[in-house]
């Protein structure tokens, strides 16, 4: 369903925005001692917590209760089946884990077209973007897990001091049990199946709750997972907020939630009742520090390609890792804007090549961000909204007020504020003064600046001279810190997230040191003193009574 | 059992002033953290050295406060708290630089070599398409962290995590348990003298103070104590999205297989007694809770335990006392159950005046009695008999996952079955409790015994953020990453994600689709 509206990129010169002294705005932030209040992903505040974030469309009363009652019974059974499947021990074997990963790979290969169709239906994603960000990425991850899982499962032998001789110790990963994954709607396939890869590789039974805001993908998963994977141990549970709430009534051995901080709070508080460990993948305003490229036109173009890719080509900016705003030196603004404009024109010759906004509510939220008059005045490029097709033109703003919603809330859409700083080094203080994001990006050739960014700012990840691509590197952990969440996954980190590291110590009977036991006397304490220092000579001397 | 978070105090005025002062303390710590001083490697090392000096200089005082709070003998205090801490902090000091160093995740040169030498499919997580690139994992401190410690090892459970939090470069608030008041006062008086008092604070108080602390935002929270309070803490932490680690208790079972050698039997019994009655009189989360043994071996085991107990507890003061009256009442109540009382085969004497309970052995108390459904946390040891020792696995499987499972056995297949078929924080064969002293294995629970692991490097990691740092260059730019889309770009992406570089190369040259 390609959009039929002509989305020619229109540049609107707004002298007010360009001429506004940007330094003034920045300094006001630098003076403020602590973080700005963090507001949630979703701008709507009038609906109740859970149902709202899960984006429930309220059903009619009788329909709702009937569905709910049935839901509770059905869910309890489903959870019971998962627990039984796990307790049977079948999910622990290497063969089972490999079979699930192979099944997942077959699903991705055989149902590719259906997956493309679902992603296009839910988000208007072009199948190339869907392949690059979801299906291809998943094939890579599942292949890597299949190749590595045996190695990951192997117990790790660890050092034991001589004092414990004869003894050996190892750390043995074991599955956690029955785990629950809440996926998000923006990368509805990737954020469902990437954690699933880790959870089955670690030998767990899994309940997957896709987001109901991407209904076609949720249906796709519901229809296909059972065909390609062990249907008794991997279940897809579809539904909205009320189903999410009911799921959290049950005891899980781990919960991974991807979504907004507000729902994360509800999920974590519900998990506390059962002492369930949680991992929360939240959002954050990921800044992009854009240094001058040392005059190299080619490098500038490469950098701009990557910025445009990481903003408008990742689900139209509806991605937790997408660039939220750019920090750039005043004098470099015209060069950057010019390059952004020409690149956008080249990349998005067809509006069909950018995803649309997920739904009317988010569309309204983004419109709301632009409706603030002082924000509207800062629009340099784009700004056209197509309500019918839920399409927002790639939009660039120059120095919108720092206290406006667009600069205090996570944007999660195709709007890119450019904030100017006097010197690029000032951006470190700018980033530090705000909540810790999932990622910090910086395009720079300045090694000292890179050092300062790594040392002085805090974030889930830092990527230099590119953006979003760190998501595809299996050897790097993916996850947030502070307001952007906690718990890391991808590659071996996914396996570890869904595993328990069991310490296994084996001792022998050969040597018995009775200095460990009462009745106590001073010589026993002296002997223990030597032992804790691993001073074996001293110990022997004390033992022989030659030393006190 | 540990710091309870009850309802707020009755005096709202007092609570408000305290609230304010806690608030200013929290923001003061954040300021200190933001100044960057705690990130400095030298600062971290100086704090660890400070801890060692504290433990060395104040040894006598430490023995005194632990004796006051729990009646622990200095031998036991040294073995379980002081000595272990000094060893552990020294180990951290030795290894800290290594732990704090960035870890290379992939290196583009080695990557290229890998790809040239091997078929692409055999090299792990190595996308050549990212070339040239370097990827690192850089540990960074989390910020301002909060530690709630427990009363049973009031020094160890406070300072062991503290050393990890400091090693990782955090500012720290330590809230010792008010149920071990002498140790808490000792920590409050001495920590500011030996550590950076601007970045490390000790907060004294009961449940009200705990609750007030939880009103503030922390970057990590480690709680050691009971399930009930663990739930409250986690619920409160959810408000600020604070990651928590919960170290809870549980019923740690000890499987005792038939042992042939007389000496082996004696050694096993020594270790069992050490792990039950000599670790704070059984008031320890990793103490043995109950024993599983074959029917025909039970009498032999019990006789040997009796004679060994007589030798170990020959002198008075060899065993700690019960913490307080409340816990004494709780333990006495177990023995008041008539069926349980009938199962006593050794001990059973209680002295409310000195808060002591004689080492007590029960043989087959009803498995649905409180002593077999609740965590005992005291010097009472139920022995449960099974027909065959392998049956103990089925006995354990339906029970909540404990912090530790112990098994005295030389039977390799039983060992394997225990490791593979049961779940617990740790498994120790032929000894008990000693795994706590091993820095190279993680300490922590699973399921009902909690989550989050520490000790040694795991403590450093508990209080660190593993930051992914990825650096690319501008040398190579693949336009197939970007729109406008066409079929050849998708074809190229397919080769990229399957790491088939030869096909990728051919596609780029236009020789293949």
TrEMBL record, chain A:
Species lineage: Eukaryota, Viridiplantae, Streptophyta, Embryophyta, Tracheophyta
Protein name (record): Aldehyde dehydrogenase
Keyword NAD: yes
Gene Ontology CC terms: cytoplasm
InterPro entries per UniProt: Aldehyde_DH_dom, Aldehyde_DH_NAD(P)
Oxidoreductase among keywords: yes
Known catalytic reactions: an aldehyde + NAD(+) + H2O = a carboxylate + NADH + 2 H(+)
Residue stretches spanning the membrane: none
Alphabetical GO biological process terms: aldehyde metabolic process; response to abscisic acid
Domain of life: Eukaryota
GO molecular function: aldehyde dehydrogenase (NAD+) activity
Family affiliation: Belongs to the aldehyde dehydrogenase family.
Aldehyde dehydrogenase domain residues: 84-504
Record key words, sorted: NAD, Oxidoreductase
Automatic annotation (TrEMBL), chain B:
Pfam family, one: Aldedh
Record key words, sorted: NAD, Oxidoreductase
Gene Ontology MF, one: aldehyde dehydrogenase (NAD+) activity
Highest taxon above the source species: Eukaryota
Domain Aldehyde dehydrogenase per the UniProt entry, residue ranges: 37-469
Recorded GO CC terms: cytoplasm
Entries under InterPro entries matching the protein: Aldehyde_DH_dom, Aldehyde_DH_NAD(P)
Known catalytic reactions: an aldehyde + NAD(+) + H2O = a carboxylate + NADH + 2 H(+)
Protein's UniProt keywords contain Metal-binding: no
One BP term from GO: aldehyde metabolic process
Family listed: Belongs to the aldehyde dehydrogenase family.
Descriptive protein name: Aldehyde dehydrogenase
UniProt organism field: Zizania palustris (Northern wild rice)
């Amino acid at each position: 369903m390609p959009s039929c509206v002509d989305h020619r990129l229109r540049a609107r010169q707004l002298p007010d925005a360009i001429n506004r002294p940007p330094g003034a705005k920045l300094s006001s932030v630098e003076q403020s001692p602590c973080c700005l209040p963090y507001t949630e992903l979703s701008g709507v505040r009038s609906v109740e917590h859970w149902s709202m974030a899960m984006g429930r469309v309220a059903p009619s009363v009788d329909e709702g209760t009937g569905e709910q009652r049935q839901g509770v019974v059905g869910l309890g059974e489903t959870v019971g089946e998962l627990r039984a499947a796990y307790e049977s021990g079948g999910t622990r074997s290497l063969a089972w884990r490999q079979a699930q990963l192979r099944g997942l790979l077959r699903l991705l290969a055989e149902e590719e077209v259906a997956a493309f169709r679902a992603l296009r239906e839910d988000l208007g994603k072009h199948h190339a973007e869907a392949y690059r960000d979801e299906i291809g990425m998943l094939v890579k991850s599942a292949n890597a897990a299949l190749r590595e899982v045996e190695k990951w499962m192997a117990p790790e032998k660890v050092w034991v001091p001589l004092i414990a001789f004869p003894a050996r110790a190892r750390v043995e990963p074991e599955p956690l049990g029955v785990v629950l994954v809440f996926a998000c709607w923006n990368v509805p396939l990737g954020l469902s199946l990437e954690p699933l890869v880790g959870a089955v590789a670690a030998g767990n039974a899994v309940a997957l709750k896709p987001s109901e805001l991407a209904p076609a993908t949720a249906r796709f998963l519901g229809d296909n997972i059972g065909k390609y994977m062990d249907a008794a141990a991997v279940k897809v549970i579809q539904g909205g907020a009320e189903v999410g709430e009911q799921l959290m009534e049950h005891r899980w051995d781990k919960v991974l939630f991807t979504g907004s901080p507000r729902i994360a709070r509800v999920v974590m508080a519900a998990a506390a009742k059962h002492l369930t460990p949680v991992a929360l993948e939240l959002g954050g305003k990921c800044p992009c520090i854009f240094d001058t490229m040392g005059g190299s036109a080619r490098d500038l173009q490469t950098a701009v390609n990557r910025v445009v890719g990481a903003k408008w080509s990742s689900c139209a900016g509806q991605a937790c890792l997408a660039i939220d705003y750019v920090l750039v030196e005043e004098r470099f603004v015209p060069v950057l804007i010019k390059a952004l404009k020409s690149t956008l024109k080249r990349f998005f010759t067809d509006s069909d090549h950018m995803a649309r906004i997920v739904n009317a509510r988010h569309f309204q939220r983004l419109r709301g961000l632009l409706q603030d008059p002082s924000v509207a005045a800062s629009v340099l490029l784009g700004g056209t909204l197509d309500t019918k097709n839920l399409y927002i033109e790639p939009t660039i703003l120059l120095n919108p007020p720092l206290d406006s919603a667009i600069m205090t809330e996570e944007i999660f859409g195709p709007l890119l504020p450019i904030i100017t700083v006097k010197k690029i080094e000032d951006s470190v203080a700018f980033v530090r003064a705000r909540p810790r994001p999932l990622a910090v990006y910086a395009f720079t050739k300045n090694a000292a600046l890179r050092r300062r960014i790594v040392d002085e700012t805090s974030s889930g990840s830092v990527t230099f001279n590119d953006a979003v691509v760190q998501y595809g590197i299996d050897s790097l952990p993916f996850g947030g810190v502070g307001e952007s969440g906690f718990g890391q996954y991808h590659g071996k980190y996914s396996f570890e997230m869904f595993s328990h590291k069991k310490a296994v110590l084996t001792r022998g009977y050969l040597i018995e040191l009775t200095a460990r036991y009462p009745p106590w006397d001073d010589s026993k304490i002296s002997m223990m003193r030597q032992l804790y220092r691993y001073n074996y000579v001293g110990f022997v001397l004390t033992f022989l009574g030659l030393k006190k | 059992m540990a710091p309870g978070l009850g309802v707020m105090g009755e005096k709202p005025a007092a609570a408000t002033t305290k609230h304010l002062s806690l608030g200013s303390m929290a923001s003061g710590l954040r300021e200190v953290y933001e100044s960057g001083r705690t990130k400095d490697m030298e600062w971290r090392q100086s704090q660890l050295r400070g801890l060692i000096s504290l433990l060395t200089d104040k040894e006598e005082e430490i023995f005194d406060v632990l004796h006051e709070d729990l009646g622990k003998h200095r031998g036991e205090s040294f073995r379980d708290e002081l000595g272990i801490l000094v060893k552990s902090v020294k180990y951290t000091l030795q290894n800290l630089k290594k732990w704090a160093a960035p870890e290379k995740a992939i290196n583009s040169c080695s990557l290229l070599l890998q790809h040239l030498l091997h078929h692409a499919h055999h090299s792990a997580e190595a996308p050549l398409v990212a070339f040239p690139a370097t990827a690192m994992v850089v540990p960074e401190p989390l910020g301002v962290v909060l530690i709630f410690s427990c009363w049973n090892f009031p020094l160890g459970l406070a300072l062991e995590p503290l050393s990890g939090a400091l090693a990782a470069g955090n500012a720290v608030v330590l809230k010792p348990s008010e149920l071990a008041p002498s140790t808490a006062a000792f920590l409050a008086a001495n920590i500011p003298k030996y550590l950076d008092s601007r970045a490390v604070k000790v907060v004294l108080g009961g449940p009200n103070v705990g609750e007030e602390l939880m009103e503030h935002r922390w970057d990590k929270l480690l709680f050691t104590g009971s399930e009930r309070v663990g739930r409250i803490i986690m619920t409160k932490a959810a408000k600020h999205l604070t990651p928590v680690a919960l170290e809870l208790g549980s019923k740690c079972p000890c499987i005792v297989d038939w042992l042939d050698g007389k000496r082996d039997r004696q050694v096993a019994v020594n270790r069992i007694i050490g792990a039950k009655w000599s670790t704070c009189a059984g008031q320890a989360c990793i103490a043995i809770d109950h024993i599983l043994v074959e029917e025909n071996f039970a009498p032999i085991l019990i006789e040997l335990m009796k004679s060994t107990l007589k030798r170990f507890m020959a002198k008075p003061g060899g065993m700690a006392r019960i913490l307080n009256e409340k816990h004494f009442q709780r333990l006495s109540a177990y023995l008041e159950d008539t069926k349980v009382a009938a199962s006593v085969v050794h001990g059973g004497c209680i002295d409310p005046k000195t808060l002591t309970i004689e080492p007590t052995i029960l043989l087959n108390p009803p498995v649905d009695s409180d002593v077999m459904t609740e965590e005992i946390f005291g010097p009472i040891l139920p022995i449960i008999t099974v027909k065959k020792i392998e049956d103990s696995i089925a006995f354990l499987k339906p029970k909540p996952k404990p912090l530790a499972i112990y098994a005295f056995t030389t039977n390799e297949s039983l060992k394997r079955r225990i490791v593979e078929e049961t779940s617990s924080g740790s498994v120790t064969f032929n000894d008990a409790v000693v795994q706590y002293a091993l820095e190279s294995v993680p300490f922590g629970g699973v399921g009902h015994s909690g989550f989050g692991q520490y000790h040694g490097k795991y403590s450093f990691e508990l209080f660190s953020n593993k930051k992914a740092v990825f650096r690319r260059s501008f040398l190579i730019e693949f336009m197939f990453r970007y729109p406008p889309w066409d079929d050849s770009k998708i074809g190229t992406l397919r080769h990229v994600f399957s790491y088939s570089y030869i096909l990728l190369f051919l596609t780029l040259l236009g020789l293949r689709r």
